[in-house]
Amino acid sequence: MRASQIFIPTLKETPAEAELVSHQLLLRGGFIRRLASGLYTWMPLGLRVLRRIERVVREEMDRSGAQEVLMPVVQPAELWQESGRWEKYGPELLRLKDRHQRDFCLGPTHEEVITDLARREIHSYRQLPVNFYQIQTKFRDEIRPRFGLMRGREFIMKDAYSFHMDHASLEITYQSMYDAYQRTFTRLGLDFRAVEADNGAIGGKRSHEFHVLADSGEDAIVSCSHCDYAANMEKASSPAPAAEQEALLEAAQVATPGIRSVNGQAKHLGIATSKIVKTVLVLAEDKPYLLLLRGDDSLNLIKAAHALQVDELRMATPEEAEAATGAPVGFIGPKNLPESLPVLADLRVLGLCNFSSGANMADLHWINLNWERDLPRPDAADLREVTAGDACPHCQQGILGIRRGIEVGHVFQLGQTYSEKMGLSVLDESGRDALVTMGCYGIGVSRVAAAAVEQHFDDRGIIWPAALTPFDVGIVAIHARKSPEVAAAAQALHDRLEKAGYSVLLDDRDERPGVQFATMDLIGLPHRVVVSDKVLAQNVWEYRARRATENTLLSETELMAQLAAGLSGAADQEQQKHQEQAHG
Amino acid sequence: MRASQIFIPTLKETPAEAELVSHQLLLRGGFIRRLASGLYTWMPLGLRVLRRIERVVREEMDRSGAQEVLMPVVQPAELWQESGRWEKYGPELLRLKDRHQRDFCLGPTHEEVITDLARREIHSYRQLPVNFYQIQTKFRDEIRPRFGLMRGREFIMKDAYSFHMDHASLEITYQSMYDAYQRTFTRLGLDFRAVEADNGAIGGKRSHEFHVLADSGEDAIVSCSHCDYAANMEKASSPAPAAEQEALLEAAQVATPGIRSVNGQAKHLGIATSKIVKTVLVLAEDKPYLLLLRGDDSLNLIKAAHALQVDELRMATPEEAEAATGAPVGFIGPKNLPESLPVLADLRVLGLCNFSSGANMADLHWINLNWERDLPRPDAADLREVTAGDACPHCQQGILGIRRGIEVGHVFQLGQTYSEKMGLSVLDESGRDALVTMGCYGIGVSRVAAAAVEQHFDDRGIIWPAALTPFDVGIVAIHARKSPEVAAAAQALHDRLEKAGYSVLLDDRDERPGVQFATMDLIGLPHRVVVSDKVLAQNVWEYRARRATENTLLSETELMAQLAAGLSGAADQEQQKHQEQAHG
Q1: Which SS3 state, helix, strand or coil, does residue B283 take?
Q2: Is-contact A536 A485, C-beta < 8 A?
């Protein structure tokens, strides 16, 4: 295709609204344009990238045996009321009324619709297992849409839903989806990690997130230096150290005038922060809970919510904390609390000896407290965030590191949550009704485009992985309007390359070479070939890979070999890099 | 693909909710399922048909030089307020508010969004002409969604929008789109007609609708028996007969007690209905207009609205008619009306001599009225609906016929309506601001699937045109569970056919042959091959085309030849049939 035939509105300046590199470069390269907050138009170049992603996703889903369908964007409220999510989902669910004042929503996800379809169409164990997927526009009314495609309101998802007679069948499909995702993101040339994730309140046993590794990622992901353990922050754990073995000292109250912080307390008392039990008051639907953590640990609220089996937790205000404990903030402690206040400790807290804590009176702390001798041993769970350097929970040899990731995929065992709520059962082999077990599997198709850019760019622009590039090869015809020879040779090379199966963008614009090179670098095609009077005179092509800094003069045979190697090799290189990082 | 690997929920009974054949058969064949009123899920088989339609549409759009983009479904109200359509569009525009109480709508069409994009990105004549298209989910909140895909609320459109410096440039792209549509619908194997349509109040000069011919079509389309003139009812016209040349008789009032109808009047007065001028009172935004038509003609309200240059007309109630004319309904006539009441006559009314009409008094009519002698000659326009047998307005040799059509495409010259309202101008060659001229071009992609079925079915099911079929070939393996030879031979044939480039559905289900045949007929694959112990013993395949009534025993070489001829020939046959009908 000639550049004069495709609308590529590049920008010289970085748009002020764009913080992330991917947002900046996708706007500057003319891939997307903003219509309104969180709403983007895919321009011709961007849509070519999107279609390439969709194609790889579709091929791998088909290969896994999943069946493609297409469900409506607009969904009736009744189904969401059945599942209980009409109330629960919050303002991200965009609700609307049709002309007859009936309630609908724009689908952010399709569990309800597919479960409704399944209960109408699937009646026998003989129809199971089955796995349906779709690639579709979805809507989530983000409170602050930002980062371009990364967190838009309207976006494109691949979502799949599988149905099974039992958990063993779900496990097989779950693994097959996990494998399909591994193949998909590998083919897309992304450096990614699959990490264990928490299933949350919804039930089901297993869940994995797929993250593209990038410094700009919104999520922290945890991985082991030695084995292949990887998890997100809500799921990651590290074994608690062995219980301390110390001679028990005498408990005492110590004046700590105005000293409310852990660090202040450690300094004032001359002890390590790890010897301090700090308290955090949280509320679930206005019911207070007191959480205990080691002074050097941080609370993970989601872990706490799961441990307490509530949907959502929030931190108490100082007033709420004082009302629940009767003690001033900064001096709250586990000894002598109102009996009605439930207490949950992090596992590490249980191993402490001779620890310090607030005395539930102003300007007073305990030192040398010990469980059972001075106060009852509380219930405990994993409440803390792991930190870099923690021991790995799997191999006990490696240590945990923390990196940033962009979530682009999620595989999730739903179990029987929706089947129960919406009455999806089938006849089993013995003719009895059996609840169906479900899994769901998502890929953020439009987000993949942004994530790929976050991982593949330099100061000149995007560097597309071979699988995602809008065109395989860019040809720059230098002063083609003045040189008919250049114009003809460039067009002929374009035609031969397209015939050989490459998609080619021929820059035939009436621009200075510097502008042409800058455009090619900005839009990030993997291969650039320059056609000028000079190279024609030498009977060669001037070639440069997007990542290279020097030109190479190649015969056409050499050029063809270079392209073939570059394109087929791209995925392998990415794959290799990924594996190095996974073990590095 | 094996039938056991694809979910095809066929139904034996015709669902009660489905009136149209296409709706019935697409439900029965397991192509679609209803989620809610006007909302359908595309099942695996249906989606394969949809994708084939999309592919042909996309190829022909690309070939025409149009550039594919993808705009958001959710559109900000501000743009619709600028164009004036936020108020005008009526309740079919589904309006909604986001979490910040800002107004949005679900896009039924994208003129506003693309015009906004163009005014941000297009600044110079050098960027024009350009034509953008998308294939996208749209929403129209129909008051009574029905007929399945034919008139759903959520549907898939291909919509294109072109931008030009002047009308001459628009004409070139308009013709190129017209040609692309001809190629598209021909390739899809549809018997269709392009008909002239009216541009309505929106301006612009030309417009054509593309209709699939089917008895169930909602629209009447008019075509000439001799030339290629074809138009929809709003646009179709027929030349008025020459003015009557009669000796003028004396006008007189005649008692017509209780005779309000045209037919009653004709009988009572002993004259032809064509000699009666009937009156129709209409209102536009509560302003009354009196329309005059010959007693044997019918009013077309849309023609009248255009002639009066108003957006919308409605028929007056009897009370409104009496209030506007001061005369009782049934006796209203053009002579002696209030001067403030505007009168518009159909062109045919002007040619009448000695005509009869109401006398604006109860139980009284005039006879032998003549223009100018008895009452002033009114303004006139084409207000009547053409009828079968009318003279052709183009060739003056043929007569008009009326058939039913399903509108599947529309090409439309928008002119400068949106450019003016939304301020889309560019610098012309002399550096002056110039308003941009636009065209728009739609194809009802999902509706094409239904229209194709309306045109291609029999009492056993669908008969897909080759371009639309979900699978090219169906293989029926008879008693495959009992005969390993049949199972193996069917699978091997399946594999060879797929390798030869055909998509194949292999029915390997454990069903009786009758059930297998009925399914194949219902889902409408063009070619069926039966594999049984009997045919294996003869070393042949049992072949039947979907339209045929007898089996043929073929060697594999003959089978391959048959398939090649059938598939490549299908489009040509349809094309030929189309041309025959176009001239028949």
Answers
A1: strand
A2: yes
Looking at chain A, which residues constitute the CATH 3.90.960.10 domain(s)? 252-381
Q: Which amino acid is it at A482?
A: K
Cα atoms in the 13 Å half-sphere on the side-chain side of B49: 30
CATH 3.40.630.30 fits B252-381, yes or no: no
Record: fold of B471-583: Rossmann fold (3.40.50)
B99 with A65: Cβ contact below 8 A = no
- What does the block give as tokens for B83? 């164009």
Fold (CATH) for B3-237+401-454: BirA Bifunctional Protein; domain 2 (3.30.930)
Cα(B507)–Cα(A197) distance, integer angstroms: 41
Question: What's phi and psi for A115, nearest 5 deg?
Answer: -65, -40
Residue in chain B closest to A9 (alpha carbons) equals B121
How far apart, in whole angstroms, are the C-alpha atoms of residue B135 and residue B156? 7
Measured between beta carbons, which residues in chain B are less than 8 angstroms from residue A96? 94, 96-97
Task: Give residue for tokens 């995702």.
Answer: A181
Q: To the nearest whole angstrom, how far is the Cα of A398 from the nearest Cα of chain B?
A: 44
Length of chain B: 584
**Which residues are registered as beta bridge partners of A158?**
A135, A443
Residue A106: its chain B contacts at CB < 8 A? Answer: 74
User: Two tokens at B519?
Assistant: 């399914």
pTM over 0.95: no
Q: Where in chain B is the domain with CATH 3.30.930.10?
A: 3-237+401-454
CB contact under 8 A, A67 and B117: no
Please give the span between the terminal C-alpha atoms of chain B, in angstroms, as a whole number: 42
What is the interface pTM, i.e. ipTM, of the complex?
0.90
**How many other CB atoms are there within 10 angstroms of residue A338's CB atom?**
12
Structure tokens at A528: 């650039």
CB A53 within 8 A of CB A184: no
pLDDT tens by residue, B284-332: 988 999 999 999 999 999 999 989 989 889 999 999 999 999 999 999 9
Whole-number Å distance between alpha carbons of A384 and A388: 13
Query: pLDDT tens digits for A34-61?
Result: 999 999 999 999 999 999 999 999 999 9
Contacts B106 to A, Cβ<8 Å = 74
Start-end ranges of CATH 3.40.50.800 in chain B? 471-583
